[in-house]
Specification:
The structure holds two protein chains of two kinds. Helices cover 0% and strands 53% of the residues of chain A. Chain A has strands at residues 4-6, 10-13, 19-25, 31-38, 42-49, 56-57, 64-70, 73-78, 87-94, 104-105, 109-113. In chain A, the strands form two sheets. In chain A, strands 2, 4, 5, 6, 9, 10 and 11 form a seven-stranded mixed sheet that branches. A four-stranded antiparallel sheet of chain A has the order 1-3-8-7, with no helix packed on it. The radius of gyration of chain B is 13 Å and the shape is globular. Chain B has strands spanning 4-6, 9-13, 18-24, 31-37, 43-50, 55-58, 61-66, 71-76, 85-92, 100-101, 105-110. By secondary structure, chain B is mainly beta. The chains are: A mainly beta, B mainly beta.
Chain lengths: 114, 111
């Protein structure tokens, strides 16, 4: 089974802090994704990566950056956390660029910015 | 742009069938997915259907696709309390491997 692991289930940080959310997958997947989930808005794509050191902006990249130095790890960075970034963050991965490969998700990180 | 629409809530009695509906706008969709999210958890892939199929059945789950009307449904037979969750519909445009997501339907089970 595919395993996508997010480093924290719950995280509390202060406004202005630099925040790192880590995600690791163990199935040699090419693609990795970061979403945020807010009530009534569904999932919104922040950034994705289709290869090591490659990244693409999603629908809401402002205030975020990402890093993919190794194939198995995709990090989401909040450069200067703000209260409107309080949300559930979900990491996902998929095998290849073929459209028939479903995305597999981690358990999510619930981030609160005070 | 592409869009996927779902109702936000569905309430059914335990033991009845649940039918969760989804409409999408992208006529070039290749795969359509149903994901389940239990409280406090990530998303779990339930099932998916290729766009050249009309129906797919997997135990208590039946997926129906009406490509002409761009309508997808998920039927859960004999709904149980463990089915209480948010169900997300998503589709893959032919042009890339991203997913276009619906907002999710919260399934509420009444005893």
């Amino acid at each position: 089974d595919v395993k996508v692991t997010q480093s924290s289930r719950y995280l509390v940080k202060r406004t202005g802090e630099k925040v790192f959310l880590e995600c690791v997958q163990d199935m040699d997947h090419e693609n990795m994704f970061w979403y945020r989930q807010d009530p009534g808005l569904g999932l919104r794509l922040i950034y994705f990566s289709y290869d090591v050191k490659m990244k693409e902006k999603g629908d809401i990249p402002e205030g975020y950056s990402v890093s993919r130095e190794k194939k198995e790890r995709f990090s989401l960075i909040l450069e200067s956390a703000s209260t409107n970034q309080t949300s559930m963050y979900l990491c996902a991965s998929s095998l290849t660029q073929n459209s028939n490969q479903p995305q597999h998700f981690g358990d999510g990180t619930r981030l609160s910015i005070l | 742009g592409e869009d996927v629409e779902q109702s936000l809530f569905l309430s059914v009695r335990e033991g009845d069938s649940s039918v969760i509906n989804c409409t999408y706008t992208d006529s070039s969709s290749t795969y359509l997915y149903w994901y389940k999210q239990e409280p406090g958890a990530g998303l779990q892939l339930l099932t998916y259907i290729f766009s050249n199929m009309d129906m797919k059945q997997d135990q208590r789950l039946t997926v129906l696709l009406n490509k002409k009307d761009k309508h997808l449904s998920l039927r859960i037979a004999d709904t149980q309390t463990g089915d209480s969750a948010i169900y997300f519909c998503a589709e893959t445009p032919d042009s890339n491997y991203q997913l276009i997501w619906g907002a999710g339907t919260k399934l509420i089970i009444k005893p």
